[in-house]
Amino acid sequence: MAKERxxxxxxxxxxxxxxxxxQYVLLTKDDEVRLAKAIEEGKTAEATLKKxxxxxxxxxxxxxxxxxxxxxxxxxxxxQSNLRLVVSIAKKYQASGLP
Length: 99
What we know:
- This protein is mostly helical.
- The chain has one domain.
- Helix content is 81%, strand content 0%.
- Helix 2 runs antiparallel to helix 3 (58-81).
């Protein structure tokens, strides 16, 4: 009885998760390229800021921080939009008997 409830609860959680990730739009090739560029620019800006932190002007610091935030948003969107792919791959491995 308790095992059935746990199994049912697990199924509900999986269903909830699948519903949740279904809200994210799948990316086109152009979207992936655009997001990848923004991510790379954000990482470059972060490295630049760390390297020149003491010499950078307040205006330049704001510009770099803006690019860093845009990169972080792009990375989050990229990951969220690919969650269905992760689930799809996991299902294939689950069917193969891997734990």
